[in-house]
Amino acid sequence: QVQLVESGGGLVQPGGSLRLSCTTSRFTLDNYHIAWFRQAPGKEPEGVSCLSRIPRNTLYADSVKGRFAVSRDNASNTVYLQMHSLKPEDTAVYYCAAATSENSCLIYAWNGMNYWGKGTPVTVSS
Question: Does residue 1 have a pLDDT over 80?
C-alpha cells in the first residue's frame, strides 16, 4: 500500500548533497523498520539503506556507504536520507518503505515491505 510520502529530490551537481524525507500521517514510523530503495531507468529496484528499529542493525549498500546517512525524527514522524558526495550513478527515483519485519528491511525485500511511497526523483548531473 502506498501510504508514505517522500520529498527532497531534485537536480544536483556531482559532489553535491541532498536530504530526502519520508513521512506519513497514517501511522508512527518509529514502530517500523524503514528501508530506502532506488530505481534507475531500465534497472531493478536497489536497496540503499535499512534503518532498523535496532540502531546497531542499520545497514547501507556498499555503493553508498560513507556518503549516505539515515536518521529518524520521531517528533515529526519523519525519516531522512542525507546524501553527500553525490555521483551521476546515484541518479534514480528514491523510495522509502516501511516493514514490520526487520529481516525484510535488512535484505531489502521490496515485496516484503508493508508500505511504500511513490518516490522522489534524484538527478545528479552537471
Answer: no
